[in-house]
Batch of 4 targets.
Target 1
Amino acid sequence: MNSPWKGKAKATNQDYDDLRPTITYRHLLSNNLGVRDPLRVVALCDSDAFYAACERIRLELDPSVPIVVQQWESLIAVSYPAREFGISRMDKIKDAKKKCPNLLAVHVATYKEGEKEPGYWTDIDTRTHKVSLDLYRRESNKIISMFKEALPTGEVEKASIDEAFIDFTRPVREQLLERYPYIAQVPVDAPNGIDSPLPPPPPIKWDDLGTVILPEEIDSAGEQSNIEVDGDATWHDVALSIAAELMRKIREDIHSKLGYTTSAGIARNKFLAKLCASYKKPNSQTILRNRAIPDYLHPLPFQKIRFLGGKLGDALAKEYDVSTVGDLLTVSLDEIQSKFGENALWVYEFLRGIDRTEVKEKSALFKSMLASKNLPKPIIQPSDGHQWIRILAAELALRLNDARVSMPTLWPKSIVLHARKGYETSRSKQATFPFVRNVTVDVIATAADKLWKDLTDDAKTVNITSVQLAFTGLEKTEMGQKSIEGFFTTRDVQQTSLKRSREDDEPLVSPEKTLPTSSYVEAVSFKCTRCRKTIALREDQATGGPNEVAQRLATLRSEHGDFHFAQDLAHSTDGSVPVPRGSSSKRKKVESEGIAKFFIKK
Ligand code: DCP
Ligand code: CA
């Protein structure tokens, strides 16, 4: 390789020219500075040994009990007391038990035929059972709800089953103005009015707020993290310390109310918050001050950074013959962009501790819900499919009904059954999901059984190795809570006296056929889950038969989705624009240019 950019020269802190921005009254008093707010504070909070903690709490065990969660023969979660015996997720269950004879191994709950709920059975077998993660989903939702309740003005973005990003910028801003009223007003004698810098910040007491990552020169001087009367603190440090205080309180509340310990990282953006959240685990929090960012990032192998781990990381390492963030800092923006495309700006910025991605609550509404099972023993007789259909139906019933607790009008448009033979592409059949009052296992299994019959097409034998059952087109019905309930109520009145015993399971009606037209009239708009705007058909488009109106609304929705797609593409800093289903070849072409090729699955 003859690259001129063998990045071995020493990076300087000039690469980090935004670490001590001058903060003015305008910054403080502006309502919406978004991702460029110099007082921005973000946290990532992750639960410790999450599945193991869920099982420990379910079983009401002492936190010191060494416990692991297993799925068939593998370990999927290891509690911290079990880690003390040298057990890790890589161990097989037998080896783990050798390391710790008192180890409690709990097998993840499973669904089995004939049971409506998943359970902890003694006869678990991958040939007859299916894993259930429902307990973990529910517990995860409880934790997320506690974040939201504690921070009505914060933004919470669930990042995985046990992690969430929290944007503390607003709650911290409120606290700053309340605690330091003297900065809430621009002083009359301020030289530049609202653009005058804030007065020096108060000293900060970091005691009990967590581990504060220190710049090398202070760290090597052996000072403690609560040294803060160094006179060098900034208002951003004050903001971090307030966020740390709020985060600590929320973590304590989660622990005392739900029993989970968590670990958090607190910094100026998502990337840095995530990076320092695991600095010290379990049950602790870490604060990365701006002044400590360069020393923290420089020695880091850049391939450990999310998004720089895969093909792109390999390509960067090869191109410049380097391994750490510090090494890569000597590569100019022009150089990176010429090799990796315009979008590679985010790589350049990440290396400098800059990340402008927003913390944004993803829609709680998933468009589909899928239960699947890879069969260790293929289905040969079509009639043997029924047991798996009931198991998958039980999972979908539980998940839909869980989701309907907070979204009572959530409704699947269709039910889809996929089946695969070996490595052949899967075949599927779908149907409109019946409109019933209660979505029970029986309702789902009956609908799925019909699909199974169509799919297997009366064959004498099949050879099916994987079955999936899904709800698609899940939406909060456009009719709104009132009209859907109203619809059921009138139906119920008519039906209860006639068919009390079966009404729960009986499809009442299929929406396409018999919903009164008036219910459709309301379905002339939708709320975009991205921009949260209500997008409506024009008045002249909202007339006609229900099918025509629904069709126009679907077109409008798709056009609106395209608008967001175009915007994502224009603003993309990470090259990973979500590709909507049915994307055109034109989109694919744009995407595969530049940095995107490092993210596309071949
Ligand atoms: N998980 C899994 N399979 C994996 C990794 C994780 O099923 N290969 C599940 C079990 C974990 C949960 O996801 O409990 C969260 O994953 P984490 O990586 O956050 O790991 P833990 O929470 O278990 O441990 P830590 O305390 O290190 O975060
Ligand atoms: Ca975790």
Target 2
Amino acid sequence: MSAQSSPSGKPIERYDVVVVGAGFAGMYMLHKLRGQGFSARVYEQGDGVGGTWYWNRYPGARCDVESMQYSYSFSDELQREWDWSERYAPQPEILKYANHVADRFDLRRDIQFDTSVVSAAFDERASTWSVTLSGGATVIAKFVVLATGCLSNARMPEIKGLDGFKGKVYHTGHWPHETVDFTGQRVGVIGTGSSGIQLVPVIAEQASHLTVFQRTANFAIPARNAALTEQERQSVRSRYPEIRHFARVESRNGIYTEMPDRGALDDGDSDRRAKYEARWNHGGLTFMSVYNNLALDQTANDTAADFVREKIAEIVENPETAKQLQPNNHPIGSKRICVDTEYFAAFNRPNVTLVDIKSSPIEEITVNAVRTGGRDHEVDALVLATGFDAMTGSVAKIELRGRNGQTLNQKWAEGPRTYLGLMSAGFPNLFVITGPGSPSVLSNMIVSIEQHVDWIADCVAYVRDRGLHAIEASTDAEDKWVAHVNEVAATTLYPQANSWYMGANVPGKPRIFMPYIGGVGPYRQICNDVATKGYEGFVMTGKEQPRKMAAS
Ligand code: NA7
């Protein structure tokens, strides 16, 4: 960091890199940049590290990727010393891990908490970003990295009367830091995505009555969560080189699992059923990896979807409720598949009611009830598990002004456009971690975060070491990449669902399939090839002698 005076006499801080967000992406970005000799400053709006795991503290919140895989791999010491207690760690443990990483790598001294980045403007003459913080201060950086998270902008539903509700209202993505005890209360939950599905069984244990308002039934696979034994942890650790390599290079979604070599229709009924049964009993997201064509072929997909629908009917005792809980309007996996613990069984409890708000939408929220179909469902507290303005929402909150004064929101008005999900033409020296156009939310996020951080750090070092001023995506490369992302998505069943992958959960948001579905391994190869070819598809400007950046 170096400082000089602003016209007002206050010193302007200057950094090589400003990183926005201190979640898993921002923390590793900082560590990596330091290792390469850059000065970096991280701004985080919360008062602690952890990002998603800092905000999403709702009861039952836990990871849906196994923790021994949903963890950093960049430090062998770290992955050997940290003991995950359960197969899928609960949110408090993941947050503890994030704090451990921050301490272990001494990250906090370069993180400024309780500070949002409000805007950033590119100075074309100086090839630097002028970054304005909440509170009004401005800092200058050569590069800006958006580590703002894909599911960070919690979305409040627009429901008539919500503001006038007299009880407490909680959003899963903005859960209070103190424990919320629903004992003896009548609670309403709106939303049955991953968050709703995780919290329903837990709140059902506390509430005097729980009413679940469901707009779309979702597929959920049992987690089969359990405590990890020391022997299990050691077994994974001893195979880490193979597991991590597979996740990065060979897998499609960043998860170590068997790669299916056949399609669902290549097996007869009984073999197929046995395979689904085995994977159902194993639990977790890898249910979709039983066959290699479940995301591609409707008939193949139907076999898996029918299996799960049958399971729901077996678990849920009331046939009418079971029918309502059976998803019937999208292929299995085309919305993020949920991983649950006793979600469907919760509806067998006498204190849990399911209300179908697809056929009878919520008319309004009164002072003490949710009104649907002319009937008031009285509640003392409301939990909104209504999701996020995903992938672009947290970026859109910052006014980012690139070349010619154009804002990123203007450029992305018809949907996000990036080259490789990393940069957007017209916005030099601005990177996004796990941005739209990269595998991102379709993958084990930590695998994708590490890949992007490593790539960005190398890229920034390349620019520095050659004394260049700026790097940016070319419009041509970006257009081709956007077309490719769409092309690949169109070969799958994903665009058939009204999912947040498509922006379909936010009224007015352009419908475009945002993540890159070509697979984590192939995507990494593409990014590596681009770098090896001297950052093909990127435009570099300004050639001069290598120099030390911020300090110069
Ligand atoms: P999701 O998956 O976006 O789920 C949100 C849920 O809320 C979903 O069931 C929505 O129904 C429902 N919803 C949203 N708005 C409304 C309104 N206005 N009225 C009624 N119901 C509504 O968010 P989550 O937090 O559960 O999960 C996000 C990701 O976090 C998840 O995929 C994991 O990766 C972790 P809809 O389906 O739109 O009909």
Target 3
Amino acid sequence: MREAVLPTMLLALETSCDETSAAVIHDGRVLSSVVSSQIRLHAEYGGVVPELAAREHLRNLQPVTRAALHEAGIAAGQLDAVAATRGPGLPSALMAGFKAAQAMAFALHKPFLGIHHHEAHLYSPWISGKPPVADFTAFQPNLSLIVSGGHTMLVHVEAEQQHRVLGATIDDAAGECFDKTGKLIGLPYPAGPEIDKLAEQGNPKAFDFPRPLLSDPGDDFSFSGLKTSVRYFLRDHPQLPDDPQQLRDLCASVQSAIVEVLVKKTIRAAKRLRVGCITASGGVTCNRALRRELASTCGKNRLTLRLAERELCTDNAAMIGILAERKLQRGAAGGAFEEDILPGWQLAHDL
Ligand code: KG4
Ligand code: ZN
């Protein structure tokens, strides 16, 4: 194990899914954050193809890292530490960024830190501004909602770097539900942003879809039943998406079912645990209805709300670097170079 250091310059890489990202962090500030999305590559397959993702990461890592260093105005030799996402994620995709970052740290004789992707999401709502800066002095215990294409979970963050998972989806993630129902409707992948756009001019009460597990007292989620009910609805109304207004109404109705479940279960858990602050991150947090609904419900319940900024909602290396630097500053030792990726790495669970 290496000695703890107070780094002044840290490079982070993130390659857990379909975004190749590199960021340079300096004392809580994001000096650069470069994200190369593979959305267009995977769109024709209707979802992420792991082998293609890994190959694309290998192609993108060098130019993305070079761009991040260039944007930050530094040379690799000025780095004090290197970090990367260690898990969870697609094994071959994780491997690309993790091993590249490890090799870089090894060559530079600097500490290396492997970071839990979801733990990094937990702190992304505390990064804000242009250029983005992490404000840990504002930190307060919170109930954190992580909603993306691969995950939906509620986490009680009791103190900085101390958390327990309260619940998670037992089947599809919320983003997956947006994407799969969108595919049924005939929208391109990923359908989340498209549904968001169409729903803005739709009537959320036009069609009635189930709110899965909403009346269940637990903190778990389930979205596959909602997707199935959309499938049956379309079987019974096959021509409906051809009418532009009905299509907008359908999108608004599906979206409102997803958003209602996410918001109500989050607020209920916060009240039960007497937590005064809610945070949200992950790709689905870009959704305008979710942001609005969380804001108004938190307002009514006198809860502080911190939403990750839109650019930091989707996967990015800036949040990985911010957490890595924070961990090093708080005395974490740089990991051993023989450490490997952990594709199924779980956040600590409530027992
Ligand atoms: O966090 P992310 O970039 O990747 C992971 O899945 O880890 O999240 C991508 C997901 C996709 O399912 C996408 O459809 C969804 O986030 N998404 C949205 C919106 N923007 C992205 N869902 C609803 N409304 C949006 N505006
Ligand atoms: Zn993520």
Target 4
Amino acid sequence: MTDTSPSAPAPDVDAVVVGAGFSGLYMVYRLREVLGLTVRGFEAGDGPGGTWYWNRYPGARCDSESFYYSYSFSDELQQEWTWSSKYPEQPEILRYLNHVADRFDLRRSIAFNTRVTAATFLDDRDCWEVRTDGGEVLTCRFFISAVGCLSAANVPPIPGLDRFEGDWYHTGAWPHEGVDFTGKRVGLIGTGSTGIQATPPIAAQADHLHVFQRTPNYSIPARNRPLSGPEWEDIKAHYGEIRDKCRASWGGFPYERSEVSALAVSPEEREAKYQQLWSEEGGFKFLYGSYNDFLTNEAANDTVAEFIRRKIHEIVNDVAVADTLSPRDYPYGTKRPPIDTDYYETFNRANVTLVDLRDTPIVEITPKGLRTSDREYELDTIVFATGFDAMTGSLLRIDIRGTDGISLRDKWAHGPLTYLGVQIAGFPNLFVITGPGSPSVLTNMPLAIEQHVEWISDCIDHLRDRGLTRVEATEDAEAKWGEHVQEVADATLFPKTNSWYVGANIPGKSRVFMPYVGGFAPYQQLCDDVAAKGYEGFVLSGR
Ligand code: NA7
């Protein structure tokens, strides 16, 4: 891009992109190959993949179906890649992202093994000065966060961890060489999507597995299976329609969304529907493909929650264990809904014990294991499946300073504020891909990522066409968007539940419902309208 100012030196590059997962790779591609800009990417890992680079724990796999949990921006790419199954495992998704990096020659624009530590906006130059842990300092016109929503691992501050004589791991920072649990006494803390995926394979290998559960979850069977040649031919022939369906939907999934309330049908009809979805379909279709009011009407939600509790009791032999595994104090779907392969069945194994932390909370980690309020459990290995400082943690690890030196950590001390989830007032030329205040984690992520990447690159192109050097959300637009995000969330059952959507999993984090629950399709329309009105709510300028 040309710098129109006679005095200000041009920045070193047009854009810096932080992170090389789904979002960073596409952002680099888009800016470099479509807009022809100079781009530097930085990635802490030694290769691309983001989430799929770090989360290598046993059982890690995608919860969205492979044929739509993938990029749509290149028809050649989607025609040449064939996934093995409905829900591919982490190594296959990592192979895909490496393939994308190679196919589009993206590695040469990305510095791996490099963490961005700080970024400061230079007000008099309309650019960012970016620092890395390797000591590099460079300037860029646009600073783009592709750090992901679930990247800052949360190891809870349980006293005594430093004295533990065994091995411990967080699932989101898993050793590349893998972990052999053979003959080990393993303690797994956490029963979110990750703990639920990891429990069956760890139990199959370990001498004994203790699952430490604070909050039970409603898990739906994945019904994973290989996808056949003819199925793939059909998918590839209809990719256009599939992607269109995703874009026109609430959650970014190509499922027909029911317009019927769970309370508008007879109990027999409802039961038959749940049973069919449970035993034949599985996965997110259970939530998105049945009735339209699980997330807004408690009585409707009760019908499905009760069905799942019944299923847990049908699967788990020990009634007391089944009771402990059955959630009763929050509605189904208001925590991120997990899907599983043989999760509940695993509690029928003789080498698996469920520990209810609500009855007997963790007190400390000891040199030999873990102590709850009633006893000590001797363990060789502790697995923390304790989640992430979601949606804000990975961005706030970077010391980001906007106009007048304002720090993003200070600005977000009481919860994140954004305009459209993509920009922050006081932080010009900073874009956040799938930031808080956008549909992000409530949707099929690659779709949400593509929409943001394309919107951001269109915005940058718009500035370039007009010789402008600065775009900044107004405080007014940001405040109104924040109110809207809260208003739509308050019309649902989401905000009352303790979940990472509201930051409840991180001690001391402000409780704010972070994702935008208004739906992907309406959100996309809103973003397009903002752009069509000359980026309404933003100030565009040049120097
Ligand atoms: P989640 O969904 O945040 O789950 C973390 C689990 O760890 C959850 O069961 C927590 O219980 C539990 N946890 C967290 N801190 C503690 C402490 N201090 N003691 C005991 N138990 C604790 O993370 P996941 O990695 O499973 O999933 C993250 C996302 O990745 C997932 O939603 C998908 O989008 C992919 P809690 O429920 O807070 O009581």
